[in-house]
Amino acid sequence: MVSFEDELKMLLKTGKVMFGSKKAIKAAMLGKAKMIIIAENVPPNIRRDIEHYAKLSGIPIYVFKGTSVDLGTLCGRPHVIAAITVLDPGDSNIMDLVAEE
Prior knowledge:
Elements lengths: L3 H11 L1 E4 L1 H10 L4 E5 L4 H14 L3 E4 L3 H7 L8 E6 L6 H6 L1
Parallel strand pairs: 2-3
Antiparallel strand pairs: 1-4, 2-4
Helix pairs in contact: 2-3
């Protein structure tokens, strides 16, 4: 089984990501994301927008089992992160997490 924490750290080291829900929505609208990771406590209106545009573009979504504070802490950031847009997974196997759900 793939550990989310380990794969996220590998993604941040070797891949290309964007942080923030506005960037996630824009990337989903343009179909540029490979995957979007959202925190469990994302506001409903933002989550609806991300899910809608991701579905239209065929982009998988992984719902992180924790808050945006937890996600920010995991990323080593001193602020909340509601969404992470994966542009390039790098050496991580983070894409396998969506396949397991």
